[in-house]
Amino acid sequence: MSVLLALTVLAAAAVSERPIHAPGPEARLAGTLLDAGEGSPVVLIVPGSGPTDRDGNNPLGVTAASYRLLAKGLARKGISSVRIDKRGMFGSKAAIADANKATIADYATDVHNWIKSVRSETAAGCIWIAGHSEGALVALTAAQRPDDICGVITVAGPGRKLGAVMRNQLKSNPANAPILDAALSALDTLEEGKTVDATTLPAPLQPMFNAAVQPFLIDILARDPANLAASLRVPLLVIQGDNDIQVGVDDAKLLAAAQPAARLAIVRGANHLLKVPAGTDRLANLASYGDPSLPIAPEVVEEIAKFVKH
Q1: Got the DSSP string for 131-178?
Q2: pTM of the full predicted structure?
Q3: Does the domain spanning 16-161+223-308 belong to CATH 3.40.50.1950?
Q4: pLDDT tens digits for 104-145?
Q5: What residue spans in the chain does CATH classification 3.40.50.1820 cover?
Q6: How would residue 14 be classed by pLDDT, with cut points 50, 70 and 90?
């Protein structure tokens, strides 16, 4: 028993957490390295949309800490990880004056800067990229240039172009009828790579098509996740919970079908934040967004560990 205890202590002691940085456009980017020990594989965790921090939390009511919990789970499997703050936000706030001006292409550039810094810090030969939600699109975009990327892991990532998703959402709500034509017309214009005068739109649409976010929208609307997956030259793992009320299993199937060599893992009961809520209703699902004590689904860690350590 004492020998086993000693081995456990030694294993725990090998894991350490420290700050890590990468070059940014105006100032450095900030993140956290959870080091599982010399020679361990390294996963870079790319955050989802909006003001989501390196731990997977945001000031809009999400405190589930999913990325931090994922990092700890991977460390227990002997896998290091780096979780990051996006340019213009949190620890990376000084990297760009206006976070609204960042595009998917910008975030993909940052991924490559992170790869260089992480390889220098850890001596890893290549880095695994795990993107969550919108971060999955960033990961797929970055991996079109596969330099020093071991493989890509998409977690709750979209499988369709954003324009198709937005059109479906707008049309599915009868309350949008008075503004539907204007919204669809604005989407058409942005998809052509042109800007829209948001002040001419109905008031409910003006925040969605605000001038400040139009460069981002033009960039993301042009990207097709399935096409990006199809052109990958590195291994791909697609993870999707079947209790996700933001991204569906069909999206995951589209991604996996686009890349014949991809591995698809559907995690039973897991929601968008990788957790299995206490109940099956929408309220229980949303309640888990604010519960950092609820663990992430162990299958998520298991699937990533199997993929990385193949």
Answers
A1: EETHHHHHHHHHTTS-TTEEEEEEES---S-HHHHHHHHHHH-GGGGG
A2: 0.92
A3: no
A4: 999 999 999 999 999 999 999 999 999 999 999 999 999 999
A5: 16-161+223-308
A6: confident
